[in-house]
Write a structure and sequence with these properties.
Keywords (chain A): ATP-binding, Nucleotide-binding
Structural class of chain B: alpha/beta
Shape of chain A: globular
Organism (chain A): Chitinophaga barathri
Number of helices of chain A: 10
Protein name (chain A): Fe-S cluster assembly ATPase SufC
Radius of gyration of chain B: 22 Å
InterPro entries (chain A): AAA+_ATPase, ABC_transporter-like_ATP-bd, FeS-cluster_ATPase_SufC, P-loop_NTPase
CATH architecture of chain A: 3-Layer(aba) Sandwich
CATH superfamily of chain A: P-loop containing nucleotide triphosphate hydrolases
Oligomer: heterodimer
Largest sheet of chain A: 6 strands, mixed
Largest interface: A-B, 32 and 26 residues
Number of domains of chain A: 1
Order of helices and strands of chain A: EEEHEEHEHHHHEHEHEEHH
Number of strands of chain A: 10
Bound molecules: adenosine-5'-triphosphate, magnesium ion
GO molecular function (chain A): ATP binding; ATP hydrolysis activity
Helix content of chain A: 40-55%
Chain lengths: 255, 481
């Protein structure tokens, strides 16, 4: 589904991603871990098409199409979803109208007619139930005055509504309380299927106990330096990143 | 960053939606301003002597007054002698039904999305359509008549209710208020007149659609609304204009009078031709609007959505004379390309326990300049006067500007005056967030702008709010790539 080859990207001339290779197949869940500032959110941003990032090398294939060639909204309509590390507030824009617009834009892209109000509300209700999402938040302005955790849950709820092929979740677990973490994870597990895939960025092994990944990758200094299965997360939890850093330093040519 | 650049580039390509012109034969006075022209206008309208005298006095004042100098933009030279001060459709008869109205005129309204017939049937809005200078259709008159409500053209009011006109004309906006008000009082063409009798709640929104349609004809409407004791009225004013080359001067005067326990809600959506991308050919909108809460517990509320005109210069204000009276001002003003808006309000607290509330939302794009200018004055007897002002500016791109000039003057130490102001840029983060959900730049900017203006749009009557939202979208259409 997603095939990243030797991806390099820079912000304002600073190289941030330095040769990422990653292959995600339908039905898989990949976890990406790594120390602060290693480039996890940058990778997510590049995939979603944030303009500040300049791709300097490499390619990304998304279901047979050149992802890097598409505008951000087209990537979204093609089925790429990013749950943001820091969802933004958009004052005065009603959450429900925003979602309806998003759903219908994506439908229009696929040649489907806009959803009727009734059908939309039915879908909204069933997804609210599925994700155990607070209906009151629906009637408020988009993320305006939401608590940190509420914003994260709102993003995950949008994910449920938009039914993406590939969802990238950037530290969705940070800021969630203990119950919310369990509920959100359960929701994500319900959304898992053989036709969609997840990339889950997290610092904590705990989330991966709920959402069990097929692969775990460690991103460090703009590169994936180690990949493994869920046991790798356990190992990281125990030992931290220092042992990896040392391995890498030994491997890297002296500058 | 580059999303904003796109916005800037594309804004230049924005076109005026209602660029067409109707071919109705006009009866136009020769250009120029002098006593004879004023006598001509007055005679055409078969006005009583006192009104002619009043016009002539206005003309004298106009000659004495000079152009204002305090505004935050360069006032263009206006050649008052180059303007024609009277234009009327040739067959100016009063129509009993819409069938008698010139079909081409009706087609014009249809193009604007204002089919009178449908309006009559569907929305319950009585429409007093002012086409250039003469009223051509007044609907729902009978229903209003039964309640004793007077809703007619200004000219008709002069003929049929001279005592009311004489009593209130010029009492809120004195002829000498400013040079444009003086000019208007000398040459005003037509406009609307509303009287709501004691204790009557007007059952429908009263609505007037203004159009400027005659070449090189200044428009000088005059509106007078009187809400008698315990009455209520909501009045809607909406404007569109066809494309043209010469700048057009528009200097209307609106006066509102609210007696004891009455309420007037006045809403405007203004979309006059803003000029091309260099600002050429746009309309100058120099309007004086003021209301007086004359009676105790009365309320006047101004809501305006200003998207058009090359220059907008207006400060709808409220004189809070009656004890416990309330004045409100809700405004969204958009400036794109080379548009200029210098707008705001005046709240004059005279009575005790008077309250005023000001919510102003400026939006600037392209090279647009948006100025909020607000005056809050508290007189010595205005014990416990309260004012709250919230004044926000939203910038799209970095070649536009927002300016805020609050003037606060309090002569009573029990008064409380609060002023809050913010300036923000449309965040790239916000646009990207919406992009990431499948929404393109243009619609994203739309959503953000409408969200920003929501507090004001919410004040508009439902059908008008929808129209206003559309207008904001049209105004910023093509603003992003
Ligand atoms: N606009 C920018 N200008 C310069 N450096 C930037 C910019 N944006 C990001 N960076 C840098 O890129 C690096 C990677 O940042 P990124 O947000 O991708 O890290 P992360 O792995 O998501 O970290 P965290 O775990 O803290 O979320 C950081 O060193 C950051 O400072
Ligand atoms: Mg991050």
């Amino acid at each position: 589904m997603l095939n990243i080859k030797n991806l390099h990207a820079a912000v304002e001339g600073n190289a941030i991603l330095k040769g990422i290779n990653l292959n995600v197949k339908a039905g898989e869940v990949h976890a990406i871990m790594g120390p602060n500032g290693s480039g996890k959110s940058s990778l997510a941003s590049v995939l979603a098409g944030r303009e500040a990032y300049e791709v300097t090398e490499g390619s990304v294939d998304f279901d047979g199409k050149d992802l890097l060639d598409m505008s951000p909204e087209v990537r979204a309509r093609e089925g790429l979803f990013l749950a943001f590390q820091y969802p933004v507030e958009i004052p005065g824009v009603s959450n429900i109208n925003f979602l309806k617009t998003a759903v219908n834009e994506i439908r229009a892209y696929h040649g489907q007619p806009p959803m009727q109000a009734k059908a939309f509300l039915d879908m909204l209700k069933s997804k609210q139930k599925l994700m155990e999402f607070d209906a009151n938040l629906m009637n408020r302005s988009l993320n305006e005055g939401f608590s940190g955790g509420e914003k994260k849950r709102n993003d995950v709820f949008q994910m449920a509504m938009l039914e993406p092929k590939l969802a990238i979740m950037d530290e969705t677990d940070s800021g969630l309380d203990i119950d919310a973490l369990r509920i959100v994870s359960a929701g994500v597990n319900k959304l898992r299927g053989k036709d969609n895939a997840f990339i889950i960025i997290t610092h904590y092994q705990r989330l991966l106990e709920y959402i069990v990944p097929d692969f775990v990758h460690v991103l460090y200094n703009g590169r994936i330096v180690k990949s493994g299965t869920k046991e790798l997360a356990l190992e990281l939890e125990e030992k931290g990143y220092d042992w990896l850093k040392e391995d890498i330093r030994l491997e890297e040519p002296v500058q | 960053m580059s999303a904003e650049q796109d916005i800037l580039q594309e804004l230049a390509g924005r076109e005026y939606e209602f660029g067409f012109e109707t071919q109705i034969e006009m009866d136009i006075a020769p250009p120029g301003l002098n006593e004879d022209i004023i006598r001509f206008i007055s005679a055409k309208k078969q006005e009583p002597e006192w009104l002619l005298e009043w016009r002539l006095k206005g003309y004298q004042l106009f000659q004495k007054l000079s152009m204002p100098t305090w505004q935050n933009f360069k006032l263009p030279e206006v050649d008052f002698q180059g303007v024609s001060y009277y234009a009327a459709p040739k067959n100016k008869v009063k129509y009993n039904s819409l069938d008698e109205v010139d079909p081409e005129l009706l087609a014009t309204f249809a193009k604007l999305g204002i089919p009178l017939e449908e309006q009559k049937m569907l929305s319950g809005v009585a429409v007093d359509a002012v086409f250039d200078s003469i009223s051509v259709a007044t609907t729902f008159k009978t229903q209003l008549h039964e309640l004793g409500i007077i809703f007619c053209s200004f000219g008709e009011a002069v003929q049929e209710h001279p005592e009311l006109v004489k009593k209130y004309l010029g009492t809120v906006v004195p002829q000498a208020d400013n040079i444009y008000a003086a000019l208007n009082s000398a040459v005003f063409s037509d406009g609307s007149f509303v009287y709501i009798p004691k204790g009557v709640r007007c059952p429908m929104e009263l609505s007037t659609y203004f159009r400027i349609n005659a070449k090189n004809t200044g428009q000088f409407e005059r509106t007078l609304i009187i809400a008698d004791e315990g009455s209520y009225v909501s009045y809607l004013e909406g404007c569109t204009a066809p494309m043209r080359d010469e700048n057009q001067l528009h200097a209307a005067v609106v006066e509102l009078i609210a007696l004891d326990d009455s309420e007037i809600k006045y809403s405007t959506v203004q979309n006059w031709y803003p000029g091309d991308k260099d600002g050429k050919g746009g309309i100058y909108n120099f309007v004086t609007k003021r209301g007086i809460c004359k009676g105790k517990n009365s309320k006047i509320s101004w809501t305006q959505v200003e998207t058009g005109s090359a220059i907008t210069w207006k400060y709808p204000g409220v004189i809070l004379q009656g004890d416990n009276s309330i004045g409100e001002f809700y405004s969204v003003a958009v400036t794109a390309n080379k548009q200029v808006a210098d707008t705001g309000t005046k709240m004059i607290h005279i009575g005790k326990n008077t309250k005023s509330r000001i919510i102003s939302k400026g939006i600037s794009a392209g090279h647009g300049h948006n100025t909020y200018r607000g005056q809050v004055k508290v007189g010595p007897n205005a014990t416990n006067a309260r004012n709250f002002t919230q004044c926000d500016s939203l910038l799209i791109g970095d070649r536009c500007g927002a300016h805020t000039f609050p003037y606060i003057e309090s002569k009573n130490n029990t008064a409380m005056v609060e002023h809050e102001a913010t300036t923000s840029k449309i965040g790239e983060d916000q646009v990207f967030y919406l992009n990431q959900r499948g929404i393109d730049n243009e619609q994203a900017v739309n959503m953000i702008v409408n969200g920003y203006a929501k507090e004001v749009l919410n004040q508009l009557p439902m059908e008008f709010a929808v129209e206003a939202q559309k207008l904001l979208s049209i105004t910023l259409e093509g603003s992003v790539g």
